[in-house]
Every structure is written in C-alpha cells, then in structure tokens.
C-alpha cells in the first residue's frame, strides 16, 4: 500500500466519529437547565456551570459518582432571588435575572469571569456571591477565556443585532455583526479585536497566549487572532468546518476541544435536531479525533466539550445536566 493510500485511510479513520461512553450526568437543581459552559477552579473544584435562572452552581462531589450542584453565585447585579429562582430559558425575565453563558477562572486570583448574555462581562470574587460588572452595554455576550499568564479576558459578543432571547431569529439569519474583545483587568480597558463575525460562540487562548481562537457558529469556521509576534493584530483561518462550532476549550496538552453541531433537519425552534460531536484539533488546526455525543445528548445540540483531569465534560443549552464521558477505547 502506498503512503498516499495509507494517509487517506488514516484520514477516514480519524474523521469518522467514534462513540463517547457516558459515565455520569450531573443533574442541575429542579426546573433550571442549560449548563452552556463549564469551569474548574485552581484547586480542581467543579465543574461550575451557569443556568437558565441566572445562578452559577458548583458541583460538590461526595463520592466517585455522587454529589450535587450547590449555589455559588450569580451574574446579574440586579437579580432578585424570589423572582428568579427556578426560571427557565428564553424567558423575558432573564433580562433582569441574568443568563450566565461563558465561564472561566483567573487561576491566580480564583476570580470567576462570566459572560452574561444580558449583563456583559462580570466577575465573581473567590468566595462566590454577587457579581461586579466590568463591561456592560453589550447586546449578547456569550463566550470567554482568561489568559493564564496575563489575566487578560478575551470574550465574544455574538451579535450586535439580536439578543439571547432572539436566538431562533439569529440562527435563521445571515447575521455577521459579532465581535471579539479583550478586557485587561490591570487597566480596566476594553478593546475590540475582530468584528464582522458570524455568531461568534466560543473563545480560547493558546497555552502561550500568542493567539486567541474564536469560533463562528453561523460562519462554520474558527478564526485565529494573533496577540503577539510578527503577525500581531492580524487574523487568519484556523479551521473550516462542516458543522456549527460552539465553545472551544484548550486541553492540557495544548490541543482544543470544539463542540460541533451538524443540523439534521428543518427547525422546530429553538434549534433543529442535530448530530452533536466533540472534535479535537491540534495547535495547527488539524482534526485529531471526532466523538459522537449521541449517548450524551441524543439529537440535542452540544455547546461545550472540555477535558479535565483526564475526563471529558459536556455542556448543552438544552440539557438539565452536565455530562461526564470518555472515548470508547
Ligand atoms: C482533579 O484532580 C485533583 C487532583 O487529583 C483533585 O483534587 C480534584 O478534586 C479533581 N477534580 C475533579 C473535578 O475531578
Ligand atoms: C458538600 O457535600 C458535603 C458532604 O455531603 C457537605 O458536608 C457539604 O456541606 C457540602 N457543601 C456545600 C457547599 O453544600
Ligand atoms: C426579540 O424578542 C423580543 C421578545 O422576546 C421581541 O419583542 C423583539 O422584537 C425581538 N427582536 C428581534 C430583533 O427579533
Ligand atoms: C471600569 O470601566 C467601566 C467603564 O468602561 C466603569 O464603569 C468602571 O467603573 C471601571 N471600573 C474601575 C474599577 O475603574
Ligand atoms: C496592536 O494594536 C494595538 C491597538 O491599535 C496597539 O496598541 C498595539 O501596539 C498593536 N500591537 C502590535 C504588536 O503591533
């Protein structure tokens, strides 16, 4: 067999999805749903997840397969517990209760940064509780990542035209009004890095902080913005996809897990049935592994895949749990 046909075979082997074995479902408290993103603190505690009623929960493990989510904090500075607790997704009340989406810790300070769909970039102190709003005046903040060296927070505004409650309209549009921003906690300054993005939905820095990746859910690609070096302040295409990428998370060995949804049919709102996948990329944008998440999410969309302590964790806007899973070997 020639090297060429070996390579072709290898390519098909890598790109055909293998199944992921569901280990556990970490259930959210009653009524609330939508752990869209996950984070772990510097002591390995978590996962922390946002939810439909504006609260952020921390998973309190009491055994290898047992535990429960306990309230940690919230992302709306004007949240009213009596009015908001138990609220479901896409309620107009979320404009007051908050809708935490992207999460990420600064591991030096143990502060939790949150991209709240309605309240922009906020942070929660190391003991949880109430948020401090850092960048308001955003239409639909979604994803973020904290540079582990500098503490700079990179975050996305998914659209300048549609709010989170208008997600269905956004998904059926050709909107490209999204942006990538950076927030520097040392100066309290915010700068727009990229604009004209088609529903940016995920953000990840590289391990050395030299570039930032931003996914485009409607654009079906991942762009790379160079922070340092010869190409600083320019961007290029990291990868083009066949499906719609949501969150992107750096793995411990400087690879990236991307939650990817391939649409299967016409939309019953808010999102049509999908084939949900976790796709692992190397630092050069090559696909290394594709996992089918049928066991974890059926035909619902997956919003995040993250590797932590050698296990994979999944988030979804539509599930009432965070999934814990591992590839079949
Ligand atoms: C990850 O591993 C560390 C060290 O073994 C442990 O303390 C921590 O509880 C683990 N976290 C999770 C979420 O498994
Ligand atoms: C976590 O679980 C332990 C053991 O059940 C319990 O003692 C502790 O109070 C829980 N922590 C919180 C914050 O609920
Ligand atoms: C967004 O949704 C709200 C109701 O939730 C509606 O009043 C508004 O017109 C929608 N905006 C757009 C741009 O679709
Ligand atoms: C940071 O800047 C925002 C406006 O961009 C302002 O509202 C806020 O008070 C500032 N915070 C600090 C600590 O200076
Ligand atoms: C990138 O652009 C910013 C803002 O215009 C500027 O302050 C910075 O010096 C530029 N960096 C490089 C390496 O050119």
From TrEMBL:
Residues 1-20 form the signal peptide. Belongs to the strictosidine synthase family. It comes from Stylosanthes scabra. InterPro entries: 6-blade_b-propeller_TolB-like (IPR011042), Strictosidine_synth_cons-reg (IPR018119). The keyword Glycoprotein applies. Keywords: Glycoprotein, Signal, Vacuole. It comes from the Eukaryota. It is found in: Vacuole. Transmembrane segments: none annotated. Residues 142-229 form the Strictosidine synthase conserved region domain. This is Strictosidine synthase conserved region domain-containing protein.
